[in-house]
Structure formats: C-alpha cells, structure tokens
Amino acid sequence: MLTGPGRPVLECEASDILSHTSLPADVDPNPHDRWHSLTAKVLEAAGIMGAFDTPKAKPRTTTGIMSELKMRAVWSVSLVQTKATYQRSQSHIAALGEMSSLKINDAFTDTSFLQRFVVGPHSKHQLVWAIIASVFIIWDLITIPLEMFDVAEFIRVLDTVGMVTLSFWAVDMPLHLIFGVQLRGSLEMRPRKLWSLYMRSWFATDLLIVLLDVGLIIMENLSTGQSSGAFRSARFLRSLRLLRLFRLVRVAKLQRELSLVASRFLSTYAFMVMKIVAALLMMVAINHIIGCCWYGIALGTGSDKTWVHRSGIEDADFGTSYVYSIHWALTQFTPSTNNIAPENGGERFFAIWVILLAMGVYSSFIGSISSTVNSLRAVRGEKIKQQSKLLQFFIERNLSLDLYGSIQETLRREGTVEVRLKEDEVNLISGLPERFKQQLHEELYIAAMQRLPFWPSWSEGQSTDRFFFSSLCHHAVSECVLMPGEDAFMPGTSCEHVYIVESGFMNYSLGNQDPSEIERDAILCLTCFWSEWQHAGRLSANSGTSYYITVNSEEFCKIAMRFGGRLSLYLQVFGILIVGAVESQHEQGVVTDLCFDWQRIEELASRAERFHSIFESLDNTALQSTSLQAKITMVTAAPTPASPRAAHWDHSGNRAQLAMDTWI
C-alpha cells in the first residue's frame, strides 16, 4: 500500500497484477503491448487511471547520426538479482575508512580580536613584505662585510640605512602574530598558535639581532661624543662593526622569502634557471664575505707583517683593495694561482678554514650546477629533436604550410600554459596501498559525482550508498586537461565516457552551427551511461587551460550492478526515461552531445523517484514468488514528443510514459 499527499492508495495483490493470467487474452504478443497491459493493470488497481486502449505502433523515423539508441545489456538485470547483489555489497562498507572533513589548505581560526587582521601565506600583504625583507637581507649581505674597508662616506650611508632596517625588523617581530603560515598542508591562522610557532623558531635570534643593533647605535653615538679614550679608537669602532656580521644570520630566511616570491611568478622552466642563477650568486656572496674578512683580518692585527703590506696596497683605494681580496677568496675555491699568501698566524689560521670550507662548498656547487644544467639541456634537446622530426614528416609528405604553422602555434602555446600536477606524475602515489589510493580518489572526485543532478534525494548522505560512490571514484573517474586548441572528442567517434567540465574555457561545435561556450559543471554525453552512443560534435579548449572529469560508462554500469539494491533499480528506471527523452529529441532532428538542462534532468529524476517509491511499496514476497520479474517506469508530467521506445496515452489531461522490461 502506498499512501501520502497526492498519492493514491494501491490495494491489490502483487501476484495478481504480475501473474501471466492477469494479461488480457486479446493482448498482442508484442512486448510493447504486453508492457502496456501490465502497467495499465497496476495503474487501474492504484486508482490512478482508467482502462487504456492498446497503443498502436508508431512508425520509426531515422534522423541524425543515430536513429535508434540501444540500451546496454547490463541494465537488464532483475529485481531479485539487484537485491542479492546489494546484500553482498554491504559487507564492503565496513572496510571503508571515515572520510576526513579537513582538507589541504583548510584554515584554522579562532575568535580572538586579532583574528580579523590575520592574512594568509599567499596573500598580497605577505608577498610585499617578503619582497621588502629579501631586499634588506641582500643589502646586509652586500654592505655589512664592506665595513671592513673603513670608508668614511660609505659608513655614514650604512648608518642611515641601518636605522631603516632596524625599524623594519623591529616591526617584523610582532607581525608574526598576523602572518599565517602553511603547516603540514593546513593553514595556521590562529594568532596565539602563530606566536607560539615564532617563539620556538626565530624569536630569540631576531630579538638578539635587534638588541645588538640598538646597542651598536648607542655605542657609536657614545664614541662620537668622546674626544679621546678607548671609545674613540679606530680599532674599537671596527670591532663594533664586526658584530654586525651577526645580522647575516638572517640570510637563512632568504631562501624562504625568495621561494614564496618565485612560486607566484615563475614557471617550472624559469624556476630551474633561477636555481642556477641563485647558486652562482650564492657562491659569489660567500666569496664576497670571505674576501672582506680576509682584508679585515690584515687591518685588525695592527702589525706591518700582513698580506696587505706585502702586496703594497696599504694606501690603495677601496676598489683596488676589494679586487685583491675577492681574487684571493676565489682562488681558494677554484684551482687557480695567485701571488697573495698569509703572512702571520692569524691569516694562516683563517686561510686553513677557508680551504676546508671550499672543499665542501665547491664540490656541492659543481654537482648542483651540473645536474640542473644537464636536466635543462636534456629537456631542450628532446624538444629540438621532436621539432626536427615534425618538420621532416611534413617535408617528406609535402603537406600544407598552413597546417604546419597551425601545429607549430599550438605546440608553442603548450610551453606557455601552466598545468597543475597530474596524479600519474607523482610516482609515490603509484606505490601506495590500494585502500589509500581509493580514499585519495574518493576525496578527489566525490564532490563532482554528487553534484550530478540525477541522483535520488534519498541517496544524499546515506552511508549505505558510500561504497557505490567510493568504487565509482576509484575505478571509473579520471581527471583530464586540455591545452588551447586541443580536442576532447571528435564527431562520429565512439563514446565511452561522460564528460564533466571542471574549469576553463571550452567550446562545443555541432555541424555548421556556431560554437557554443561550455560552462563549468556542464555534462556531456550523459546518455552514454545507459546506451551506446556516438559523438555528434566536437569538444575543444578555447583559450587557457581547461580541466574536465571523465566517467567510464562501462565501469559505471558494472559498479551499479555490483552494488545492486534500490539505487541500482532507480538508475535502471532513470536510464529508461532519459533514453526515451533523447530519442524524442532525435525524432525532432536534434542530435547533440550536450545534456538537457539541469531542471529537465531533475524533472526526470523526480519522475523516476516517484515510480521507484510505488514499486517499493509492492509486496516483495509476491514479486519473488512469481516467475515474472518486471521493471515499470511511470511518469506523470508535462507533454513530451512521442518516443519510439515509449508508449504514450492521454487521460484526463495527464500524460504517462510507460516502459517495462520483462523476464519470463
């Protein structure tokens, strides 16, 4: 018995309705007529409609590419089989782990007052601040070692800029309260947690450097006010400036800041070139510091027995002294000659440690540069080789110049478009246990699958259907990308997938019609789930990178039948409806890969769901005892054109589309 608002009461025995003897004696043995008779029996018993006249067969017409759609054989399973399959599939549900609601890049926040001011690690504010910090770190890296040369005008400039940098780093410390960070894949945006992280990392170093700068400024001001004494001596002032070398500890922050900037603006190829340039500059920076310290040691001894006096540059200008110093430093890292040697114990001790440092740094530098350059050369060489083969192919076959130019332009654009990382490019994923890969695919595609408009309302949030969706995401769904000018499919080709557009700009071309723009979440070739299909048009990327999801139709059918149960039965009913609707379009001469609008699909889903509720209300025991198993699709809705696979009758202003598939 089925009751509810607007629903009739069905009071009859299912065995009477579905038995062989209940068929009218004058019914034509044609299956369509038998389906009508059985359906009419159900509807009469339910009080929905009166007796029906046997429909007359309508002539079939042939239009477009496909004159008749053929349902896939897998959807001909009986109700008893779907129930048995469903009971077996429930044993797999316990093996599925719980899906975590926390995703990568999800932000942790709190309700504190400062929370409203917190900015993410990829925000423009952090990007600008990172650029300024990088400039000041590079400035310190270059200028602080140059204080060894004791150039008065240059020292005054450094003192002025030093006040600016001191103010910047003093402000930088409390800003860590509102600068969010990416921590183990999630965004940490809670001020209390951010400050705790800063206290355990750079706080002590930053505080010590700021206090050191403040102390140096105070000591230099005191020395300037003294007319004589220890505070006024050049050696004391030089010793104070040596303490500023401790500020170079901030160079360790430089890699983080530059990586943040480079990840926003550089492609993969440009980033590899940037790595080579950065390695060269780092080598120069190390030699710059060593050369300046080498000169400072000679001046700091206060003796005439130094390499400076031996070289005769004690009265030389800044440029000459710097060139001598940097030349000696570079010769320690490379197998080259020089005429500068240590003259005292301090210089010799420093030279020994420089040689030991050079042995490790230089070998690491050469290995890193060689590896990166070889990678770039291999990529470039392979590209040139393939370009030569393409040109040779066209020359040997005397093909058109216009086609060659179009292909060249398409290939040129491929290198300028950034593509997100694909799953098969991450080798570590292929070695994961199968359960983790299934969970990975479920989190990747479950949202897109559940957004499809034809699922019944009772399947949303139902844990018993999770095995179906998890298996669907793992075995049937794939992610694809289209570059500008590339095609997803061509007209006349066999269709094996349903296409769901994720993002990008795609066009669909059908015959001589103007291309239509495909919007996000658009569905193409949906009928492929239930019937064999051939592409009627062409789907291509217009401009920019386009991403879409494909669902293999054969795997979809296998998983639906393997899952069984009410969802499988519902999909069978919905499939009959949508195939009938598509064939109605074909009769009007409309053959397209584009799906109906979402409102129409939801309407068909609602019809299928209404009949499914009627079918479930029947006595299951009676259904299983009879030798006749049937699937009935009854739809009461607005008029639609007649379909060659569906019979239509008009009664009291209502139209019912009836389709049944029987096993005897």
From TrEMBL:
The chain crosses the membrane at residues 127-146, 166-185, 197-218, 269-297, 350-373. Its main location: membrane. Pfam families: Ion_trans. Residues 128-377 form the Ion transport domain. One of its GO terms (cellular component) is membrane. It is a multi-pass membrane protein. The keyword Iron does not apply. Keywords: Membrane, Transmembrane, Transmembrane helix. It is found in: Membrane. InterPro entries: cNMP-bd_dom_sf, Ion_trans_dom. One of its GO terms (molecular function) is monoatomic ion channel activity. PANTHER family: CHROMOSOME UNDETERMINED SCAFFOLD_10, WHOLE GENOME SHOTGUN SEQUENCE, ION_TRANS DOMAIN-CONTAINING PROTEIN. This is Ion transport domain-containing protein.
